[in-house]
């Protein structure tokens, strides 16, 4: 799997010719040609919400099964007018077709993560795409820093291109529809967990949700890179509008295969994020996904990320834990957690508690942080399977982001453990200084 010495140099020279080295994924993270198309994620008809609002039990079971077995599903008859969707898709196309200088007038900057960006990274590797982000609440008020004692808040404003006023209008209309749909889904998912339907609504009084417009240009070497690298979503749930060009792949829970989500006209794709995984105490796992690109067609997608109020403490819901099923996650503060995130890097922090025990080299523990139940489970697991973490020679060193001056505590994205089924284990965000960080209580 690893490419060394001259071979590596040659590969780099060839790829430089294509002028895309920055986007080059390391070998083990390049899309394999055999992602499966045959089986799609569940397709759920939401029409009972309109037609039979008093007898939703069948729908609730379907949604619960999809959350548990896939973490992903598509919805049709969701009530979002097609016109509204077409309008935002057309405005997004017009925006990304603008000259670079025009798009850069609304670029994201150090202090404000909203706006245009053309060098997004997933797990420290550049993605083959351009994005435009905005917050659902404008302005949005969030903690100024991750420091627990720092009470300062900052106000962030969306940036809209003056030369394309229709973008803002179309986004506002579509976002209002996404919000309605998100709350319908939230209620259905709450019911599927045996909770009152409005149990989760209180977490969104000052929601910090955001929306992204994704543009994936055609790529000269699609087999060597990704539109978005594998990642999980950190929020509550994501609602995605994809156009008619396939690209999204979901990691099937049963066997770890990447499943290409075939576009269904007018459908939205839903996935539960890390917060649902914590709330449900692992019943509904946040599932990895990624985006493949192609050499001929451009692709557009619009994810709406449902996030709670910044002051939310995220923890397993008390109704869902008991002696037999104790809390598997420590609680953390959502606003402080977001404030620690480097917006160029994406991934899940949840796994860190589970896998950090594996950060050992030749029997010497490099990091021994925490002492949580998960840490214990990790240790037992390692003892039982005798798998041993090792850094994989030079290639994997490129994944070490230690020493990144902006986020020196983000480290060690990828390790191998010699597990034959999944030789590459991804550790997205080991926040070394923050594993037992101040925002985890
Ligand atoms: O474009 C897609 O299909 C998915 C995008 C995605 O996963 C993201 O933006 O986080």
UniProtKB/TrEMBL annotation:
The keyword Ion transport is assigned to this record: no
SUPFAM superfamilies recorded: Clavaminate synthase-like
Keywords: Iron, Metal-binding, Oxidoreductase
Domain (Fe2OG dioxygenase) ranges: 207-308
Record InterPro entries: DIOX_N, IPNS-like_FE2OG_OXY, IPNS-like_sf, Oxoglu/Fe-dep_dioxygenase_dom
PROSITE patterns named among the record's database cross-references: FE2OG_OXY (PS51471)
Family as reported in the entry's similarity comment: Belongs to the iron/ascorbate-dependent oxidoreductase family.
Name listed for the protein in its UniProt record: Fe2OG dioxygenase domain-containing protein
Species of origin: Rehmannia glutinosa
Lineage per the UniProt record: Eukaryota, Viridiplantae, Streptophyta, Embryophyta, Tracheophyta
């Amino acid at each position: 799997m690893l490419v060394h010495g001259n071979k590596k140099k040659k590969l780099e020279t060839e790829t430089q010719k294509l002028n895309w080295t920055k986007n080059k994924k390391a070998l083990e993270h390049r899309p394999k040609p055999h992602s499966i198309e045959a089986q799609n994620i569940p397709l759920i008809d939401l029409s009972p919400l309109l037609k039979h609002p008093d007898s939703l039990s069948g729908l609730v079971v379907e949604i619960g099964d999809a959350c548990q077995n896939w973490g992903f599903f598509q919805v049709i008859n969701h009530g979002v007018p097609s016109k509204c969707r077409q309008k935002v898709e057309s405005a997004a196309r017009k925006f990304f077709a603008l000259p670079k200088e025009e798009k850069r007038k609304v670029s994201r900057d150090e202090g404000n993560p909203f706006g245009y960006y053309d060098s997004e990274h997933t797990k420290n590797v550049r993605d083959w795409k351009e994005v435009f982000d905005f917050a659902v609440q404008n302005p949005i008020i969030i903690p100024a820093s991750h420091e627990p004692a720092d009470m300062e808040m900052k106000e962030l404003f969306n940036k809209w291109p003056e030369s394309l006023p229709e973008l803002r209008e179309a986004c506002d209309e579509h976002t209002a529809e996404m919000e309605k749909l998100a709350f319908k889904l939230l209620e259905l998912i709450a019911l599927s967990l045996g909770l009152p339907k409005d149990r989760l609504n209180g977490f969104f009084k000052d929601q910090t949700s955001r929306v992204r417009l994704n543009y994936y240009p055609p790529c000269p070497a699609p087999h060597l890179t990704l539109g978005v690298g594998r990642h999980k979503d950190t929020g509550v749930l994501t609602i995605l509008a994809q156009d008619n060009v396939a690209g999204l792949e979901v990691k099937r829970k049963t066997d770890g295969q990447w499943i290409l989500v075939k576009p269904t006209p007018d459908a939205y794709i839903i996935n539960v994020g890390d917060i649902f995984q914590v709330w449900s105490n692992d019943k509904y796992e946040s599932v990895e996904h990624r985006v493949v690109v192609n050499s001929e067609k451009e692709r557009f997608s619009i994810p709406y990320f449902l996030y709670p109020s910044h002051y939310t403490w995220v923890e397993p819901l008390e109704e869902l834990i008991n002696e037999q099923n104790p809390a598997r996650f420590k609680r953390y503060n959502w606003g402080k957690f977001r404030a620690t995130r480097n917006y160029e890097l994406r991934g899940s922090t949840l796994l860190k508690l589970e896998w950090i025990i594996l950060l050992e080299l030749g029997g010497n523990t490099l990091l021994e942080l925490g002492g949580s139940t998960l840490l214990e489970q990790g240790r037992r697991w390692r003892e039982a399977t005798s798998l041993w973490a090792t850094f994989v020679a030079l290639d994997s060193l490129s994944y070490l982001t230690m020493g990144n001056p902006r986020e020196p505590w983000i480290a060690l994205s990828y390790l191998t453990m010699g597990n034959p089924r999944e030789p590459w284990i991804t550790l997205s965000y080991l926040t070394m200084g923050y594993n037992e960080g101040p925002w985890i209580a």
